[in-house]
Structures are given as structure tokens and as C-alpha cells.
Amino acid sequence: MHDSEKLERRNVAVIGSGVAGLTAAYVLSRHDRVTLYEADARLGGHAHTHHLTLDSGAEVDVDTGFIVHNDRTYPTLLRLFAELDVATQDSDMSMSIRSDASGLEYAGAKGIRGLFPTARTLARPRYWRMLGEVLRFHRRARAVLDTPADEACAQEPLGEFLRRNGFSRYFVENFMTPLVAAVWSCDPTTAAHYPARYLFTFLEHHGMLTVFGSPTWRTVTGGSARYVEKVAAHLDEILLGAPVQRVERTPDGGACVVDGSGDVRYFDAMVVAVHPCQALALLGDASDLETEILGDMPYSVNHAQLHTDESLLPRAENARASWNYLTPADSTDATGVIVTYDMTRLMRLDTVHDRRFLVTLGGKHLVDPTTVVAEMTYEHPVYTPESVAAQSRLSELGSGTFAFAGAYHGWGFHEDGALSGLRAAERIGGSWDTHAGRHRERETVS
Description:
This protein has two domains: 3-47 and 224-298 and 384-445, FAD/NAD(P)-binding domain (3-Layer(bba) Sandwich), CATH 3.50.50; 89-219 and 299-381, Alpha-Beta Complex (Polyamine Oxidase, Chain A, domain 2), CATH 3.90.660. The chain has helices at 3-6, 19-28, 75-84, 111-115, 119-122, 125-146, 151-155, 158-164, 169-184, 188-192, 196-205, 225-232, 276-282, 288-294, 343-346, 385-391, 414-427; strands at 11-15, 33-37, 49-53, 59-63, 69-70, 88-90, 95-99, 105-108, 217-220, 237-239, 244-249, 255-259, 264-267, 269-272, 299-307, 323-327, 339-342, 358-361, 372-381, 402-404, 443-445. 43% of the residues are buried. The strands form five sheets. The chain has a seven-stranded mixed beta sheet with strand order 8-7-16-17-18-15-19. The protein has a six-stranded parallel beta sheet with strand order 20-14-1-2-10-21, covered by helices on one side. A three-stranded antiparallel beta sheet has the order 5-9-6, with no helix packed on it. It is of the alpha/beta class and 446 residues long.
């Protein structure tokens, strides 16, 4: 028997069942008795799969939140998938820009046909110059990363970097802003405030500061709910539709959970894996330090629709991609991000031939309501010099029995959430390398 098995199992609470909470709960379940609280009626957070039955009787599973991961920059998630035997498959990661204001359409990662989808694209001198600016941007961004960062450099917003280096408005509107806004689900104004060096680190990490060399992207076969189900099978107790009203830490190092009915439960340790503002709202005894750091990390709220209206895609077939950014002709429509994910392409939904399943973030009024299958609301971290500074201090929070987790600990992606969940579990004494016993029968309350 392993020494760890001789120790008494602790009762540990995990608040929130997004990827951070799921990873923390999974790691902790190897030795501790874990209770997972989720306010929603389903587990997974952004791991959100819709099971659809079509008029023909065919069934299809479509993701609308977490979609893709890659073989290079998702090590925590890949370890989780490998251990749980989660099936994955190749995906298509390409991105298009459609500007109804200028008529420009093009797509990256689709070769020459994507860059020049119509003959008219060849006759756009500003577009040719923009392609040259893309290469110059790659060089300037890499130069920033090669230079030791002082505080001023680390805090410089993207918009100021672009202005200082003389990038054209055409480049900003048709390449830079769409890239940042689509990847981080933020409006164009917020994109300009993204800390430049922090952004460049992400782009370099993901092979996006070169024309070639991007990682191989994959998606979960059958939808991300498949991995959520496999994690859930390892947990002792799952409470669905169970919003936590308050969390209080006790003098002996434990913590109490007060649920919606006013019932109080004591736990030996706890991971709070919800958004920063939600964490602060739960803490009945938040410290000044917690309020200062977590209060400086805002999120944006984004409305999304699962639909089949192809009018939001580029008009030119060769310009259509997996991610499709739209700039409307009417400037009053361009205040928020409008990006359409082609789930048929991303998830290789080859069994349905009479329609394409699309997820559009923003632009609700542009989607034909008769084509809408489902509507969702997601929240994403907003990165500003202030929030990045607060993020650098997150290690100051928590204790040996209480930890925070969430994708806001990193760049806001699924790997960041998974890694933060692992680190939170380790912070309160868990270990992924701890021997795991056989699966236990668990209780699910909803």
C-alpha cells in the first residue's frame, strides 16, 4: 500500500466546474473526497456541447465554447485527455476577414487561394502593402521579445505600439484588430488596449509570429462534453444547480460553504474556481489583498448563437475559414466583436450535408432568427495593463488549504484553466502523481 493511502482522506470542496474546477477536482480526487459545486444545471463551463436531433432523425453533437487545442501548448490538457482516454481528431484552424466597409475578403492558413480569393483582391494595392506589414509586424514583435522588458515596455498597449512603429490604419483594421478581437472575444477598442508584450508572448508561444510553423490543432471527438463526463466519473459528489451563496474560512484552516438553502457544510480545504468577481462575491471574509488583486481582473460578457445562417461568412467561397471575422458596413454595428466559428469545418461534422453549423459571437441582429438553434452567454477575461499587473500577483493569494483557480491565471484559454486547476490542487496538498485507487461510486444531486 502506498504511504498516501494510509493518510486519512480529507473532505475538499471545489466551487465551479469549468476546466479549472474539473482539473483541480480530478487531481484532488486521487486521494481526497471531493465535492464539486456547480450553479448551472450542467458541468463544464465553456466545455459546452449541444446534442441535436435533426428533422431527418440524424443526431449531431456541436460545441459552442471550448473548441480546439493543440499538440504544443496544451500539455496539462493533453495529459488529462491521455489519462482519461479522451478521443480527439484533427481540426482546421484558419481565419478569414470580411470587411463590408471596404469589400475586402481574405483568409489566412489557406494558401494562395485564401489570400487572393477573387481577382479583385489582386487589384488592391493597400492589401498588398498590408501583407508586407504583416511580415514587418512579426519582426518588430519578435524584437520586443528579444529585448529585456522595463516597466514602461511591459505596460505599453498594443495601439500605442502600432502607432509608434508606423503601422497603417488599413493594417490595424484588417489584420491586427480582427486577430486580437477574434482570439480573445473582445471589442476593437479593448483590443487596442491589450498589453503589447503580453500579446506578443502569446503569439510567439503559439507559433503565430511566423508565416509557417503553427502547431497541429485538434478537437474532442463527439464534443468537449465527452472529457467532462470522464472527469465526473472520478468524483465522489457532484452538486448541480447548487449555487454557493457564501464561503467563509475557519480558524483551523478549513472553510465553510453556505448554499442557497442556507445549509452550512465544513470542508478541510477548498478550491474556488470561478471568475474573479464571482470569487469576491462569495467570500464573506475577503481580505484587502484579495479585493485589490481579484477586483482588478475584469471579464467581458459575450452573447453567442448556434445557428445555420451562412450569410455571416465571407461571400467568396475561397475566403471562408474556420474563424470568420466580420466588420459591418455600418459603423454603428462595429462596436463589438462579430466572429463566426464554422463548427462543421472545425469539428469535421461530415454526416450533415444540407447545412453548416455556425457559432456567432456578437452581431445578434445580423443572424436570421429562424436559423438559431441555441443561444448562450459566455464571459472572457479582459487583458489591460492593470489586469496583467494584477495577474502577476495572484501567487500572493491563497494558503495551504485554500486556493483560487481559473483561466484568468493565464491567457484565458482552456490550457490556462487546466494548469491553474492543477496548481490550485497542488497548493492545498494534492498531487497528480499520488496513487489513485479504483473509481468510486459517486453521488450526483441536481
